[in-house]
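CORE FACILITY INTAKE
Project code: CF-77B
Contact: R.S. (postdoc)
Sample description: multi-component assembly, two entities in total
Requested service: structural model of the whole complex
Turnaround: standard
Below are the sequence entries exactly as provided by the requester. Do not edit them.
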Amino acid sequence: MNATNKVINPILELTGVGIEFPTPKGSFKALTDVNLKIAKGEMISLIGHSGCGKSTVLNIVAGLLQATEGGAVLEGKEVNEPGPERAVVFQNHSLLPWLTAYENVELAVKTVFDKSKNKNEMKEWIEHNLNLVHMGHAMHKRPDEISGGMKQRVGIARALAMEPKILLMDEPFGALDALTRAHLQDSVMEIQKDLGNTIIMITHDVDEAVLLSDRIVMMTNGPAATIGEILEIDLPHPRNRIELADDAKYNQYRQQVLSFLYEKQRKVEPLIKPTKKHNRVDKQSA
Amino acid sequence: MDNKINKLPHSFFNWGSLSDDVMPIWMQEAVKAIMLPIAGLLFFLFIWAAVAQNINTSLGEFPGPTKALEQFQSLISEHNIEREKEVAFYQRQEDRNNARLAEDPNYEIKIRNYTGKPTFIDQIGTSLITVLTGFLLASIVAIPLGIMIGLSKNLYAAANPVIQLFKPVSPLAWLPLVTMVVSAVYTSDDPLFAKSFITSVITVLLCSLWPTVINTAVGTASISPDLLNVSKVLRLKPMTHVFKVVIPSAIPMVFTGLRLSLGIAWMVLIAAEMLAQNPGLGKFVWDEFQNGSSNSLGRIMVAVLVIGLIGFLLDRIMLMLQRIFSWDKQAVLR
């Protein structure tokens, strides 16, 4: 799709990205020829069936995986190792369980602003970021004392506190219940409106993708997955989930994503995965 | 609403006649928590007394609970008498020295240490000091070693066969080697520690090292990959990574290892003291066995119970430390 090439001054550019993993049965090509340009301040969703390599793309941008073909360039510099300018919000919050919310953010702030902020500025900055995600009231609680949604908020605060050039979110709300998820989506919209972050988010949720994104990148099924279509969401910000529920344009976008996922890239997963044992039984009965 | 528990047939744990109407639930729980262990201990005492009567040895009847209690009291009073003797000895020495000084102001006073035989209580003290020294040294070696092995898969693969080889070795096999090496290497005219002490400590160390090494390594290696990713994204320096992420994450496993190690250390020490004639509870048991008086078996029985009690207390202390230091307050510790 040519939506890829529309971006003129990209902050992040993926060119011909592919990756192969060595396995005992030979190499396995997970991704091939992924091309994507992302503009500053853009919110991109990656959507696709499980196992299509969405997380692999994100991990390559994060530097946690190395592309075997092509590469990612962030502001003119090639990405080849993880770093705080590409902060990641992990699916299961990944807070250090022995530290309080405050201390978790502090660990990030101390590492990133080691030289540029003094003690007071750091304290202010940590508190500012926790307030931003509405966690000011529970900043001295440890992860096991707060709910799943609150943990994820702290995870977002930690990522934001690194002042990343690009924020990577790996199914950030996947493990949360629907109501909590809606709250957090609103928070992310609010924060993005205020700070203008560039965000790449992986999601399974069609509504979430349409509600939050400027563009939805839809991926084909693996192996050798790549970008299937890119859908531009031309809806004015700020978006309101209740008003949009009746919006014709919104529903049309939603329909387009659904049709990509369930018609063009229909994935039929067997209810019981065939194993060797099953095969043998089948042969015998046949 | 009727309490359903009352309608169930009373089991052993429901305390028959003490129904909910008489006692609130919490009190029932408290009674259970105190009475059940006491019931267990009473049962043990009963069996002990019953069995002891029917065993006759060359040193007389096997000591029952009453005999053991008698011997315990006699051990305590022997200890007190010995302490009184010691005080008296120093008193006499001081008087003598003062008298000499009064006669001749240039007299150089000589102070001799009291050389009475160590009592049961003294032996407990010696054993405790030895086991704690050996255990502390073992931990100082084992925790860093475990962390290093846990951090690197290759190092783990290389170290594993060595650990597995030495882990099951009985202290008795080490003891002759350790004794000989200590005699050869530890030579000093004015030794800070007795040779026997060094031998015991090293034997304890060699045997109690492994559980801590293994558990620390496993705890370190099984850190969640998500936390490792966090560390990578933050580009934590290697030392910060180890101290802020790896060690806290491994702490629960480290303590599991330490508790196992301390238990082993205590068992090993008694055996080492017995065999090598190093001062301590083990030597006490051995001496009583060689002594062969009609009281010996009773005294050994006292030692057995004291060894058990101290082992139990040491484990409780470690558990308490684990509760204080571990972040995982929800873990069920027993």
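Facility notes:
- The first helix of chain A runs from residue 54 to 62.
- The longest strand of chain A covers residues 10-23.
Invoice: internal transfer
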